[in-house]
Design brief:
With 183 residues, this protein is mainly alpha-helical. The protein has 8 helices and no strands. α1 runs antiparallel to α2, α1 packs antiparallel against α5 and α2 runs antiparallel to α3.
Length: 183
């Protein structure tokens, strides 16, 4: 009778841990879905921005072509780690475009461009918030998967850790201030 009670308690504990892991994993999936919604808005705005910029910047085609190529790469990424890498590349290219745009005051005065840029900035802010939420969910989930005794159940039920959304090395490095002021 005592053994049966112990087995019952362990079973109830195991089900509780399993359900907790499922809830956390679903929160991670939901948080990543929020990132994908923001990325989709970003991907929708980029062609409009590129088309507007093309009208003003005929000889800067390589920057624009890179952005279009990287956008397509990001759209076609299938798993979170591919999407993270593609998004980091696209973010870097968009930063390069913003630096290039400084040489076109007539473009910066265009109402269409200004509105598109505002919309893109709003999406970028929402994307940053979605990334923070995702990373918080991933940290909570990974901690639950890796800590004892949850790790026993997580390992036997194929609950693997998830990848955090991290900035690429160029974003984490020091800013070259001399490069910013040399034009």
């Amino acid at each position: 009778m005592l053994i049966l009670g112990g087995i019952l308690v362990l079973g109830i504990f195991g089900v509780g841990v399993y359900n907790s892991l499922i809830r956390r994993r679903n929160r991670v999936d939901q948080a990543f879905s929020s990132i994908e919604v923001q990325l989709t808005q970003r991907y929708d705005l980029i062609p409009k921005l590129v088309e507007t910029v093309k009208q003003y910047m005929g000889h800067e085609r390589t920057v624009l072509e890179d952005i279009v190529r990287l956008r397509q790469k990001a759209v076609s990424a299938t798993d979170p780690s591919q999407k993270i890498a593609a998004d980091n590349e696209l973010t870097r290219a968009m930063g390069q475009l913003n630096v290039t745009l400084e040489n076109y005051p007539q473009l910066k005065a265009s109402d269409t461009f200004v509105q598109l840029q505002r919309s893109l900035n709003e999406v970028e802010e929402q994307l940053a918030a979605a990334r923070r939420s995702y990373n918080a969910s991933v940290m909570e989930y990974n901690t639950a998967v890796q800590t004892f005794p949850n790790s026993l159940i997580a390992g036997s039920m194929d609950f693997g850790t998830r990848t955090m959304f991290v900035a690429d090395d160029k974003k984490r490095g020091d800013v070259d201030m001399r490069g910013l002021f040399q034009a």
